[in-house]
Amino acid sequence: MKQDNCIFCKIANGEIPSKTLYEDESFRVILDLSPATRGHALILPKDHAANLLELPDEAAGKVLVLAKKMAITMKERLHCDGLNLVQNNGETAGQTVMHFHLHMIPRYDADGQNINWKPGETTQEELVAVCEEMTK
Ligand code: AMP
Ligand code: ZN
User: Fold this and answer.
1) pLDDT for the residue numbered 17
2) In angstroms, what is the C-alpha Rg of the chain?
């Protein structure tokens, strides 16, 4: 199902043109308009889901298989040295378009990008507490 006024619904379903790298009945893979690196691509499901939590299991299962297929092509054709997969959920996490998308960011030696987080600190007690909250 598409959602009115969702730009990625329109792109995924071909109503707005895009630089398409791959398309099947469930997904379209496009080039990002503000690429972090050469070849930065987005995997878009054709059916609207705002984020990972809303993505049906079937699409969630297919998306990583497609990412692997695209990764192989990126390596072969663009000769990238590495690859980051990034998937933001919610404004707090940096999501700006509220239609699920998986970023595929090819990495090149000395490309100057920095897709990282600052390592934090914790304690054994805190690790145990988080484990209990997640598993009780
Ligand atoms: P996020 O911050 O995870 O929501 O990422 C949204 C991404 O969509 C950004 O990297 C934007 O550059 C990209 N983007 C936004 N609009 C378009 C568009 N019309 N075509 C291609 N990429 C887009
Ligand atoms: Zn949408």
Assistant:
1) 98
2) 17
